[in-house]
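Long-time lurker, first post. I've been practising inverse folding by hand and with some scripts of my own, and I keep getting stuck on stretches where the structure tokens seem ambiguous. Below is the full token string for one chain I'm working on. Before anyone asks, I'm not after the true native sequence, just a reasonable design that respects the backbone. If someone could post their per-position residues I'd love to compare against what I wrote down in my notebook.
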């Protein structure tokens, strides 16, 4: 598969056009049996790995130990001896009996893990020095008994492949300059073809997510955003998606990307402290996130379909180990569960024409859920000479994104007054797209439609109107107060089209 190079530096979350899944907050698990040195109150788990048997491995930056927990109760089951200052941790084998721990002095620690049974343990097998001055992120290549490691070498942040058996470091690939401060987290794709690195650098222009081809070291993408100023933990799933933790000023979120670095969705974590490390469980159903300064793990259920179920997972484990239900079996729809994280149109599967190229997502797109009291997601207000553009847009929105659209040339009922049809349809539509062209503003009928839409929006104080500028024209004063989508250049469709999709899916304000 050829992956195009791309650099994304979009300004806002609203620029992300696609949604593949939702996160449902499932539980906060308090970690028991942890005593910090020198009475420190700062907890920092910079590495996390899920193991079979409801087990969780954590790399404790504060105490330089690796700890094994029951991920349901938060009970500590075992811990390693104190190591040199550590950073990352990963499974080495598919049977999950060996782990690798990166140390900040440039060493790698190989350890044996017994996660289940009557006597769980974590034991050191060997330690070896690499040619890196400091090792940070780590991921395994199980079929080759190798590791992919990010770290620092000289004046650069870099990554390399390290052989476990002969302890040799391969070619060192530069990520960015290192001026005295910076760190990185690393993940490899499930198919072991790509390497993804979340990197915080001295220069803000170097901070972002980087993608490389594992075998050749070729750089394939850089993902940068203004709201990705502090990227941290990173992981991948079997579908090829990438998940990156981020803390940006007062914003905490997870960026979901495709394997070629295109944005899929940003999940807000506004009620959580700063997210640090991240991993998926073995069934790819839950994401676990460690929190800076907190001795707890947050678990999120990944919801790949829009469905209704009994919310039995919303549980919080307190320090005393007691379990408290958040909903007591209350039946909630997916949209109700997600609250601020779900747009009112609901999540959809990605079709073949969208960013995800996995076979799991190819096929038809399900219709989006309509907001209560509506019949359409979108009503189009346009001049008859612009009908070709409208038809093409309607077709794409319905086919690829699951919107239900209304345009009167297609949907008008014979014998119905055109003016009455427009009025009724506009009231039943969640949003109205105004196609701005010279012909539209020259038509008294279209101008009347626009004024109806504007009046509806102002009277309800909600963002019902989405102006789209299709050609150079003089915009009336009553529309000039609104931001519009500039669609004049067909060659820049990759810029304005995602904005249109997200504007149509956005919540009312």
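-- Answer (accepted) --
I ran through it position by position. Result:
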């Amino acid at each position: 598969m050829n992956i195009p190079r791309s650099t994304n530096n979009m300004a806002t979350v609203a620029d992300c056009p696609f949604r593949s899944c939702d996160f449902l907050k499932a539980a906060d698990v308090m970690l028991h049996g942890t005593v910090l040195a020198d009475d420190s109150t700062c907890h920092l788990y910079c590495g996390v790995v899920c193991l079979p048997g409801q087990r969780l491995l954590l790399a404790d930056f504060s105490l330089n130990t690796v700890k094994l927990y029951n991920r349901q109760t938060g009970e500590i089951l075992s811990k390693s001896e104190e190591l040199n200052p550590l950073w990352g941790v990963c499974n080495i084998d598919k049977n999950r009996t060996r782990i690798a721990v990166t140390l900040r002095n440039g060493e790698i620690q190989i350890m044996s893990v017994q996660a289940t049974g009557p006597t769980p343990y974590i034991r050191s097998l060997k330690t070896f020095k690499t040619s890196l001055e400091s090792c940070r992120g780590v991921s395994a290549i199980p079929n080759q008994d190798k590791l992919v490691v990010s770290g620092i070498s000289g004046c650069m942040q870099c990554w390399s492949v390290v052989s476990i058996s002969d302890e040799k470091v391969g070619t060192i690939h530069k990520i960015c300059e290192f001026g005295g401060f910076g760190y990185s987290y690393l993940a490899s794709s499930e198919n072991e073809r790509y390497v993804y690195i979340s990197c915080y650098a001295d220069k803000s222009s170097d901070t972002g997510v980087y993608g490389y081809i594992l075998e050749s070291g070729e750089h394939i993408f850089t993902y940068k955003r203004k709201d990705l100023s502090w990227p941290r933990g990173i992981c991948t799933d079997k579908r090829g998606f990438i998940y990156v933790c981020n803390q940006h000023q007062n914003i905490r979120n997870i960026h979901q990307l495709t394997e070629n670095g295109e944005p899929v969705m940003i999940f807000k974590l506004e009620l959580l402290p700063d997210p640090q490390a991240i991993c998926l469980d073995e069934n790819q159903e839950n994401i676990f996130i460690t929190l800076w300064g907190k001795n707890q793990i947050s678990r999120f259920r990944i919801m790949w379909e829009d469905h209704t179920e009994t919310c039995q997972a919303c549980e919080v484990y307190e320090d005393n180990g007691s379990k408290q239900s958040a909903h007591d079996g209350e039946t909630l729809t997916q949209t109700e569960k997600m609250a601020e994280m779900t747009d009112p149109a609901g999540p959809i599967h990605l079709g073949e024409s969208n960013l995800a190229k996995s076979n799991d997502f190819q096929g038809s797109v399900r219709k989006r859920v309509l907001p209560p009291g509506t019949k359409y997601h979108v009503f189009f207000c346009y001049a008859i000479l612009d009908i070709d553009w409208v038809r093409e847009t309607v077709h794409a929105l319905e086919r690829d994104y699951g919107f239900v659209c209304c345009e009167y040339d297609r949907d008008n009922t014979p014998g119905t007054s055109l003016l009455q049809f427009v009025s009724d349809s506009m009231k039943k539509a969640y949003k109205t797209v105004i196609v701005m062209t010279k012909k539209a503003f020259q038509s008294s009928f279209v101008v009347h439609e626009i004024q109806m839409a504007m009046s509806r929006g102002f009277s309800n104080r909600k963002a019902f109107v989405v102006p789209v500028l299709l050609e150079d024209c003089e915009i009336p004063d009553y529309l000039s107060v609104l931001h519009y989508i500039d669609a004049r250049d067909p060659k820049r469709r990759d810029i304005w089209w995602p904005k249109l999709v997200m504007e149509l899916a956005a919540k009312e304000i």
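A couple of notes from the structure itself: The longest helix spans residues 444-460. The mean pLDDT is 77. Happy to go over any region you disagree with.
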